[in-house]
Amino acid sequence: MLTETVNERETTAKETFQRHFLPSTTGKMAWILGSVLFACIVFSACTGALSISVRELWEIIAFKLGWIPETHVEEQKSIVFWIIRLPRVCLAVLIGAALGIAGASLQGLFRNPIADATLIGVTSGASLFAVFVIMLNVKYFGMLSELAGTYGISFVAFLGAACTTFLVYQLSKVTGEGGIATLLLCGIAINAFVGAMTGLMTYLADDAQLRNITFWNLGSLGGANWTSVMAVGPFVAISILFMPYLSKALNLLVLGESQAASLGVNMKSLKRKVIILATMGVGASVAVAGTIGFVGLVVPHMVRTLFGPNHRTLIIGSALSGAIVLTLADTLSRTIVAPSELPIGILTAMLGTPFFIYILWEQKRKRL
Amino acid sequence: MIEVRNAGFEIRGRKLVDNVSFSVHPGEFWAIIGANGAGKSTLIKLLSAEQALTSGSVHFHGRDLRKYKLKELAKKRAVLSQQNNITLSFTSQEIVLMGRYPFYESDPTQRDLAIVDLCLKKVGIGHLKSRLYPTLSGGEQQRVQLARALAQAWEIENGLLLLDEPTTGMDLLHQYETFRLAKELSRKNFAVIAVIHDLNQALQYADHVLMLKSGRTHAIGTPENVLTEQSIHEAFGLPVQIIQHDLTPYPVIVPHVAPSFNIP
């Protein structure tokens, strides 16, 4: 340092001519993941019980948009694409993005690499309420459908997610000074309780209900149609639009809560914003597709390993990668045991676990 | 610039800071000294508005500290606290750039990046710019944190720098360089308040010393008046001798321990 101070005049003179740059991977990441996602969407749209070639796919879309006057593709394929395939792919993209972005931001907020939406009660709250509905559905079906129509379960699940998260948040404020560790512990406690309640419901359920509950707990995109896409879309869009604005604050949080505060981060409002945005995305997703585990946990780690820990890159990257992962997983889930369907939650966990362990091992090795 | 009047902080009936008053002007370097648990870090937290006072008041630039928003404060003072654990693999440059976050919206300007470079060089780790923070040694990490605080304070006029044991883990050269840097900043009309453990460094660099003993002001004033054999013995419980060597410009504080001294 002494020598550097001596040369200071010289170096500052040189600095003025030198352009400073911050090695950033955001642009590169957006390009790579964006094109991968596009490829996955095309692949997923083409694959299925009725396979559509890329050329046919192009003709179907171009014809619909009026770019070409006529098409030789059979009417049936066009209908399958517009009514069944496309909404399902859209739903996978939306839900994947919501899970990824929620995982990334919650891991940042809790400064804990194992955090995800499951931990603060979003998922378990949603399942508890959904299971409730499935149980009551048989007895009071008429009443419920009067209230919320066919989307009864979805609506109630979203409500459950919001309630549980709110409860966890309030509880953490009462029991501690609202520190992040307290919030996390409250989440775990509430999770255990909600888990027990769900277990009790499962125990009391009859065979038909049991099958319904199981499917719901393992997640499936089978119910996708344009209405469900429209139902999830706005929530996920808000989450994706606003979360990146929090990336600077989340970066500062890496320095610790007190240092972040000294750099102007209002912890209370940051906490509230992140939790609300994450719950919105995940709650809406769980509501239409059930609980899909592991995506929110693994995807941010994947992006961090590839493109660094800066939240600006991480949040967008996790949204894109989450969409990629879920699109692929869904394609697999509906083709692997066709004509039947494997619940997607089973796939994400089964493929996610070994991959996750590999990432952890890689990270350890890199650091040494 | 910062005026502390009868500041007190109490938690569950324990008074961590009690009736402390002093005022710091631009261009002054204050050292806060005291034994472990004397309330030094708590006082820094009160001054940085991380903790709210339970009695008394702190005025910063003539305004009550409680009336400031965190964002405003971030543009007026920098804080370096004691614990700095980072496990995510950010580069040193990214960490130091965080000190500039309060000053730009979405993208750093060339000026911000130039300041980051300069601050890294100032603390002697220009060559570690693109190294990952978790792979650095403890002393190097502390220097990155110092650079971050420096980057935050760089362009502030009459800024305030709060340092809580800034030299933890640094080697001898960099400890002295850190204090030299703080001194240099105070010459540029900064006010620097630092918690210092090494009494010799406090004696050598500080303009004013605040000596705390169990939360109360034990002595306050110029280093020569505060750091006396008697007051150090009272505050730290260790008998010392202050020696003025012919070849050193400053007196030296050494523990006055007889060869037969036994640790009880």
Automatic annotation (TrEMBL), chain A:
The organism's place on the tree of life at top rank: Bacteria
Family named by the database record: Belongs to the binding-protein-dependent transport system permease family. FecCD subfamily.
Family annotation (CDD domains): TM_ABC_iron-siderophores_like
Transmembrane segments: 29-54, 86-106, 118-138, 150-169, 181-205, 226-246, 274-299, 311-330, 342-361
Compartment(s) of residence: Cell membrane
Keyword ATP-binding (UniProt): no
Bilayer topology term: Multi-pass membrane protein
Source species of the chain: Dyadobacter beijingensis
Main location: membrane
Keywords, comma-separated and alphabetical: Cell membrane, Membrane, Transmembrane, Transmembrane helix, Transport
Protein name: ABC transporter permease
A Pfam family per the record: FecCD
Claim: Disulfide bond is one of the keywords in the record: no
InterPro entries from the UniProt entry: ABC_BtuC-like (IPR037294), ABC_transptr_permease_BtuC (IPR000522)
TrEMBL record, chain B:
A molecular-function term among this protein's GO annotations: ATP binding
Domain spans labelled ABC transporter: 2-239
Sorted UniProt keywords: ATP-binding, Nucleotide-binding, Translocase, Transport
Domain of life (superkingdom): Bacteria
The protein's role, per its UniProt record: Part of the ABC transporter complex HmuTUV involved in hemin import. Responsible for energy coupling to the transport system.
Protein name: Hemin import ATP-binding protein HmuV
Organism in which the protein naturally occurs: Dyadobacter beijingensis
